Amino acid sequence: MAATLKPYLTAVRHTLTAAMCLENFSSQVVERHNKPEVEVRTSKELLLNPVVISRNDKEKVLIEASINSVRVSISIKQADEIEKILCHKFMRFMMMRAENFFILRRKPGYDISFLITNFHTEQMYKHKLVDFVIHFMEEIDKEISEMKLAVNARARICAEEFLKRVILKQDEPKTSEVFQCLTSKESLQVETCFDCFFFHMLKIV
Fold first, then answer.
1. Which pLDDT tens digits describe the chain residue by residue (205 residues)?
2. Any domain includes 164
3. Which cellular compartments is it found in (predicted)?
């Protein structure tokens, strides 16, 4: 675990544990209604001050607590365009199956959001819910990094197979410059730009 990641996750864990002191509370506006106050926001006195825990500009967590619910919004590190696409696809895949995750929100704040209500804390262990959120934050960066490596490896193979069919000779003019990345030192040698190639292929798919 990175030196800066451990205190970041520790701060998130302590804040979540403190914010998850929830109780059953009916709506003060509509009779016989019990909705997450952090979502409906009809009574300001039932809402706590939101807390933002930031590791850097790209990684942060927003924790919004109320008397009967907690909303956790997570911003995931995305260093380049490929990671942005992978993160978007992965989050979309999860949100389409939100009912299987119980606490996952379909419309996220930041990149992904969890909504924990008093009914969840009554049916599940509170410390296990906190552990799940922390474990998710630990593993999501690894998952995206592994997917990026797999994408680059697959892109390399695809580009090599594609460029095998492009026959270039040193004494012939270069006609397929769309699929070439030429260096200034080796003007007659073709270098393949795998990231750009696969990014273009992802857009097509």
1. 567 788 999 999 999 999 999 999 888 888 888 889 999 888 889 999 999 999 888 889 999 999 999 999 999 988 888 888 988 888 888 888 888 888 988 877 788 899 999 999 999 999 999 999 999 998 988 888 899 999 889 888 888 887 877 655 444 555 444 444 444 444 334 444 444 544 555 544 4
2. no
3. Cytoplasm, Cytoskeleton
- CATH number, domain with residue 117: 3.30.1460.20
Q: What is the domain extent for residue 55? A: 4-148+185-204
95 phi and psi angles, rounded to 5 deg: -70, -30
**Number of structural domains found in the chain:** 1
Identity of residue 114: F
Angle between helices 81-95 and 194-204 (to 10 degrees): 40
